Predict the 3D structure of the following.
Amino acid sequence: MCGIVGYTGLQPAAPILVSGLKKLEYRGYDSSGIAVEQGGSITCVCRAGKIDALEQSLGAFQLTGSCGIGHTRWATHGAPSEANAHPHMSCDGKIAIVHNGIIENHDELRRILEGRGHEFTSQTDSEVIVHLIEDAYASLAFDVSEADDLVDAVGGRVPHQPTVEVRRGEPSLLAQAVNMASSLLIGSWAICAMTEFEPGKIVCARKESPLVVGRGVNGMYISSDMTALSGIAKEVCVLEDGQLAELDERTFDVFKAHDDELIRVTPSMTELDWTVDWMDRGRFSDFMMKEISEQPRVIRDTLEDRFNGSALTVSELGLTHEELNLIDRVYIIACGTSYHASLIAKNLIEGWARIPCEVEVASEFRYRDPIITPSTLVVAVSQSGETADTLAAIRDAKIKGAKVFGITNVIGSPVARESDGVIYTKANKEVAVASTKSFTGQIVSLTLLAMLLAQSKGRLSQGQIRMLFTELVDTASQAEEILKDTEAVNEAAFACKDAHSAMFIGRGMGAAVAEEGALKLKEISYLHAEAYPAGEMKHGPIALIEPGFPVIAVATESPTYDKVLSNIQEAKARGAKIIAVATEGDERIGEFADHVIFIPKVRDALSPITAIIPLQLLAREIAILRGCNIDQPRNLAKSVTVE
Ligand code: M6R
């Protein structure tokens, strides 16, 4: 959830680190810091708050050194404060580290380290890492073996230079120390470390938390996310779990940890496209609006080459026609917005393919004992492809013998790598924390999957598949229509901006859309919002309604339209302010709704693709009117890589 950057090369490191951190800020933005080595020592600067705060304070430090590491944090252990911000320093100030992930045995390690004389300056789980490295380094570099001597070593009475020499071609002392320290950790980590004993060197290691090493014209780079390297590194090596990389200003080596040893491996390099700058907002004032506007393109790209005129073609599915045909149960596991997209798919898979389908929040699924047999298909839906709970659920499902299929937006992400097959959502980089275009990509992909299952089971004819596919493609131009005129949305937003709470209702497909609409509103405008299947209102939630209370109803044309209309009237009768998303040509809705946002007519099964757009726009507009940060809402981070 946090972001890591590192640089060693020919240029001053500080501006490169800050610019990299800004590109990663969407991943976590509670506090940040950098450590730069210059003149034989390491200077560490940390600040609470946004990276701008860090940047502003750097002027006072005159950092000209060309080797450094940086971090932007999303707090897990310890408040988002300057003291808890990374980098963390060893007791003697000679080693600095940054860390992403969670160290589960940090309490125990801290107790042991404190017993050995280490002094901690933060409440983070991460700080144990630097103290472990400090001990390991002392034992490797200064030829001390007795515990008492180690206490002396960390007490600052160590020589100024290592007394042990490393043979040419062997991993550095720092690399060995990081490896030794890592072997004591339980949890997940991406670690970057540097020491003033080895100027110009950075060592990084990972387990279950991504790290990428990049080679550029002016030096070597590290990042927890490829985004930070766009435009600066020409080629990258995505480190694998258990690998460790050692960088200097000219090159880098990759090692695989094998017991206590580090074995050199040949890095596998990928060229980066330098022409794309994912962090460019273009003509938009925020990434969320840019991403909402991209949805017609996402629909078209996700559907490209998926229908050959007579059948659907998803070659990367990883399942044969026969295997598909054998599937008798589907679980879809996901979190947040991806979970809402999955709720939509349940209706399609059961409705079209007639296969029982359960949708579960990944953090619940992984701790249950679901019924999984070899004919169970587990579908993992994740924009980032690195959500910790979703990944853990995939691993669990595989152990239990399920076929796992991933739907993700990130090529080569852990979800993609660990699934038997994958559909990519083609949303491209999503930067705003609130997911929008990836939701659309997910619904379109899940719709394809449902059609594919129905095709294999012979439940939908060739003609039906052709018709559905054509209508799916048409949703792209319908989305364009919706985006052209946002006046009705803006008026509705103005009417809701001062509310304290809002309720979203819908039935069938509309119920899942309502869930996603409520999530969008609460996460970016901080206006409390609940979503209920409209029929549930009378069973409790209607008690909340008082005059002026906003009820946002998904009331598009569907088999349950009349029922939704009745539920709207029940709310209206109690003074609710009704905002309805309805189908063009609906002449009844205006009688009951205070604000109507019309969308083009579309088949009920495909309606979520278009019906969600007004709700995304509504949430954004309300958030703007309430003065909120659209792209980086408080307390959140884009990728949730911790449990
Ligand atoms: O990357 P994932 O799709 O696995 O992320 C799951 C949720 O954290 C995510 O959908 C979150 O709810 C959204 N950012 C909310 O807009």
Q: What stands out?
A: Residues 153-157 have pLDDT under 50 and may be disordered. The CA atoms of residues 488 and 597 lie 6 Å apart. The radius of gyration is 27 Å.
